[in-house]
Structures are given as C-alpha cells and as structure tokens.
Write a structure and sequence with these properties.
Elements lengths: L21 H23 L4 E3 L4 E3 L13 H4 L2 H7 L2 H5 L1 H9 L1 H11 L29 H23 E2 L2 E2 L3 H17 L3 H8 L9 H17 L2 H23 L5 E2 L2 E2 L1
Antiparallel strand pairs: 1-2, 3-4, 5-6
Helix pairs in contact: 1-6, 5-7, 7-8, 8-11, 9-10
C-alpha cells in the first residue's frame, strides 16, 4: 500500500497514492463471471458426466444428482419445473451460501460491490451508515451452518475423485483424475481452514491441557489455524479449480464419445 504525503481535499480525500480500486473491481468482476457461468451451467442442465468406457469424470456442478427430491406436483410447471430438472438447482445454493457468508469474501463484497470502504486508507462512499452484521448482513451469521453442508458436499467431491481413479471400468489415470484430485485438495484446504471450523473445534474451552480431549482439540485447532493463514489464497484457488474441472469435463462430455448419466451424449 502506497500512502501520499498530501491527501487531496474534498469528499475524495484519501491517503492512497496508488490505484487502490483495481483489486476490489477485479475481484468483483471475477465473482460475477463465476456466478454467471454457474447459472449458465445450471440452466444447461446437461454434460455433467464424461464416461467413454475408460475414464469416468463427474462435474461438481451436477453431482450428486438430487433432482429426484423435487415433488412431482412441481415438475410440470413451466419455469420452476425446468429449474427443478437441473442438478445445479439443488447444488449451487451450497457453495453460494458458503462463499456469500465467508469471512474473507465479506471483505471482497464490502469493498468491490459497496465500496464501504473501497480499500485500506480509502474512506467509504457516502450513503447509509455501516451496520456491520445487524442489518441485511445478519445473514452472514449463518456461515457455520453453510460450512456443515459444504463439508458433506466435500465428501461427494472426494467420492468423485476416487471414482475417477477406480472407475466402473477399472483403474484409470489421466488428466481428469489429476484435475479432480487437485479440486478436492484445494476445496479441503479452503473448507478445513474456515474460521467457523476453527471455532467449532477449539471454542468454548477455558483450558486445553486438562484432559486428552482438550489437547486433541488444541492440535486440531492448530491445524485449522495453519490453513487459515492462507485462507484468501485457498478461497480463490478452490473457486478457480472448480471452474477448471467443470470446463474440462464439459468439454469431454461434448466430444462425442462420452455419456451423460448413463445415456448417449
């Protein structure tokens, strides 16, 4: 961060001499682009599985397929029925809720979308006063519950990675297996370094050394803390790698020799 000796007068007064707006705007555009792609994939509602008899890759946007949970009464409705026929409709709320309420992403949203403030040493734009988590952003307090569901989703991602190696056709090693394995690793680094998980494992204790359970919780908390130190890095890398995995699997599913949910593509 570069600070100017003489800040300009007026409402735009700031101590920053560099282009402080670049990263908040870039982060905002990246999130919007990823969200747009995710909505596109949910609307596309196909090409979630690439299986040509050798490899077996499942996209994080379409597995597990929970469309069977939709009531039959709603399936025939014009717009809602089409949405409920897509696995993405059931899966996307989980990462959306997690990342929308994530402690790190909150900074991105406040800076990029609301400019409150735009960056360090940059005053917030005029408008309603900052209310923290007492107004609309009280929903951020649900982050811990989003984490619990996301950990279940991580288990399904791990299953997909295992099945990419130990396919229904036998053992297979290819580009897709590496992509899915890295996807699980990056998601695990992100989720297992979560602030809420850190509090869940180590919070509420007056002392750690009184018994074995306390000492175990201290070691677990230390592991989460080590990952938490790079939480912003894993947040972006995991987000990007989910996109890489889906784009790659969709490409294979469209190549002509793949199958989708057991049916010819």
């Amino acid at each position: 961060m570069h600070l100017a000796r003489d800040a300009p007068p007026g409402p735009a007064r700031t101590l920053r001499s560099d282009a402080a707006w670049v990263w908040p705007v870039a982060a905002m555009l990246l999130i919007v682009a990823f969200g747009g792609y995710a909505v596109f994939r949910a609307a596309e509602a196909t090409h979630y599985l690439a299986d040509n008899g050798r490899y077996h890759y499942a996209s994080p946007f379409g597995h597990p397929d929970l469309t069977y949970l939709a009531p039959d009464l709603l399936r025939g409705l014009p717009i809602l029925g089409a949405a409920l026929a897509s696995p993405g409709t059931f899966l996307l709320p989980v990462p959306f809720a997690l990342r929308a309420s994530c402690y790190y992403y909150r900074k991105i949203y406040h800076r990029g979308f609301f400019a409150r403030p735009g960056s360090c040493a940059v005053p917030a734009r005029r408008g309603r006063g900052y209310k923290g988590e007492t107004g609309l952003f009280a929903i951020n307090n649900l982050h811990r519950f989003a984490l619990y569901v996301a950990l279940v989703a991580l288990a399904f991602n791990l299953q997909d990675a295992v099945l990419a190696f130990a396919t229904p056709h036998g053992f297979y090693l290819g580009v897709g297996t590496v992509v899915l394995a890295l996807k699980v690793a990056f998601l695990a680094f992100y989720l297992l370094g979560c602030h809420s998980l850190r509090h869940l494992l180590g919070g509420g204790l007056d002392a750690y050394d009184c018994d074995l359970a306390g000492r175990t919780r201290r070691r677990l908390t230390a592991g989460v803390t080590a990952l938490n130190a790079r939480h912003p890095l894993w947040a972006w890398v995991s987000l990007a790698w989910v996109l890489v995995a889906d784009v790659y699997i969709r490409h294979l599913a469209l190549s002509g020799d793949a199958t989708f949910l057991g049916l010819p593509a």
